[in-house]
Amino acid sequence: MTAPTKPPTTDQIRTAWDTLAPGFDRHTTPHTTRWGEQALAGTAIGPGTRFLDVAAGSGALALPAARRGARVVAVDLAPAMVERLAARARAEGLEHVRALVMDGEHLDLDDDTFDVSASLNGVSLFPDLGRGLAEMARVTRPGGTVLVAAFGPPREAEFIAWTVGALRAAVPGFAGMPTDPPPLPFRLTDPDRFAAVLREAGFSGVTVRQVVVGTFFGSAAELMDTIRSSHPLGAQWIAGLTEDRSTEVRQILDGMLRERSGGAPGAVLHTTINVATGTP
Question: What class of enzyme is it (predicted)?
Answer without folding.
Answer: transferase
